[in-house]
User: Fold these one by one.
Assistant:
Number 1:
Amino acid sequence: MKLGRLNHIGIATPDLEASIAFYRDVMGATVITEPFDLPEQGVKVAFVNTPQVAGELGSVGGTQIELIEPLGAESPIVAFLARNPAGGQHHLCYEVEDIAEARAWFEGQGKRILGPTRIGAHGTPIFFLHPKDMLGQLTEIMERPHGAH
Amino acid sequence: MKLGRLNHIGIATPDLEASIAFYRDVMGATVITEPFDLPEQGVKVAFVNTPQVAGELGSVGGTQIELIEPLGAESPIVAFLARNPAGGQHHLCYEVEDIAEARAWFEGQGKRILGPTRIGAHGTPIFFLHPKDMLGQLTEIMERPHGAH
């Protein structure tokens, strides 16, 4: 296992539109995707791009901020928002070359994997690891989008 | 204000050495700095470098993971670890070109700044913003190291 690129930081929010306005108007983000539903994960999503170098606007090379709002009452982030009403840091996501190999690696390390491998917000296979096995961090592992770098 | 590079994600841990071993042995990190004390912040610190592209080991271009362990009983992360005994995501840090300009910007936006501007782990001026004013995220703003990119 080789440490992959930190693809994004997931930020849970009770109000996606307000969070987009915050990143645009207060933080100065210029590249924010249109919100879209991700019913498989029970969330509504928008990505904020960060630049590689401060001031280099429009770069898509940096770790993204993934804003996630609950989609439906069964959303897995409802409980997180009940504990953190203003929202907050929800998960980290690292890229790997091969999702099956990564899954086997973490299983071999005795780490609890949360559910099946499925398609994530970037259209590639992902899975989540239990925060209690990952230094308190809910960790997403995603297969690197082919041709994206 | 222009959104700057996401410099690092701060991860609080009760055991810095165990966390370094985790990133090296489980996550596959190859570039981890030697731990050092940062008495001004009340923490002991080590940085884990992440690559820009999965598998491109040794790159220093990615958002870093900043592992922080309490330094002394007065450490500001003692309370966080009491709530999160296994550790977890503690703060995010964005780069800016000019720390005084950024401080004036956030003050003008009515955001609460936690204490004076001081020297951070990368040797440049930093300040922290109150999580309740920042979508639940404790946010560090740091002046970009000159010549580092």
Note: The longest strand of chain A covers residues 88-96.
Number 2:
Amino acid sequence: MPESLQKLVELISYLPWIGEKTATKLAFFLLKANPSFIRDLSDRISRVQSDIRECPVCFSLTDRSDRPCAICEDHSRDGRSLCVVEDYLDLVSIERLGIYKGRYHVLGGSVSPMHGRMPSDLHMKELFERVEKDGFEELILATNPNIEGEATSLYIKENVKTPSIRITRLSRGLPNAGFIEYADDLTLINAFRGRG
Amino acid sequence: MPESLQKLVELISYLPWIGEKTATKLAFFLLKANPSFIRDLSDRISRVQSDIRECPVCFSLTDRSDRPCAICEDHSRDGRSLCVVEDYLDLVSIERLGIYKGRYHVLGGSVSPMHGRMPSDLHMKELFERVEKDGFEELILATNPNIEGEATSLYIKENVKTPSIRITRLSRGLPNAGFIEYADDLTLINAFRGRG
């Protein structure tokens, strides 16, 4: 294969979820693709890291420079509720539903000493500062339903110093369209405990 | 999602074999990837169409400008044998084996009137010219073992005007590590006919 094509295949196959075979097929697709698509794609890839930054308030992602994100600046949203998520994509998943109209705080991951991620590696300090000064009435801990997510929520619960705030978690139970027969033990235990 | 991130996701999901979910994950991977990787990838994508061209002799791909490809210019290769393939990736598959040391001719596809691909849409004229003037002793028709590939080989056989040339096809039969039980009828018929 010509060296520059081989190099492109290598770079593409360095991407996660893409093996060498798919990378080769993608390189050939690019070779014959519309030149304006090639231009747009390479341009967007080269700019993505400078175009996108973290919101200085909630650590969500934004393309506004030196300004809070659109959600933080939307004054029609409910300033009494703060929803804490691990990652930006969790925020996107919740926003897509259109059922939550409060604020967010993106931690940037979960507490996991096993993987070397301590609370100080996340946006915890900023969370506690916001909780202390912004007068939220409810703190929704929407961390993942796994060990790391649980540890993260527990850490937050133990370190929030505002006694008046109501701290909630997303409910646990059977997923929609699931089968009791195939549910794992913990899911079924949670579904029983959360019944009502 | 910030507009410029959304735009990148859209462009990536326009690629074949990549759905919107994978595109989103790839965009986030790029957002956090090593900046030098981002630079290399966007650079290679933007240049691929100008870097790579067809060999003027065999229509394989090359990054040499205005010169035949490395295989065509390799005088140690056997100039008596010409292997005809549909696409460049077929050539790559055969070259990888290291068992063939002759020349190639890439047609650029197969004859398929149903899909509007006629012999004149392929590099047929150039093939017949090479066969006529380069004195090949064997013409290996390595088109695909399907209807279009068969039609393409038949067309070549009927139009080669050099009576002295030996025209061969790749053998047909059971694939390695396959099971007779699961072989389709035509494969089994071919395996019987080709027995020896």
Note: Chain A touches chain B through 48 residues (CB under 8 Å).
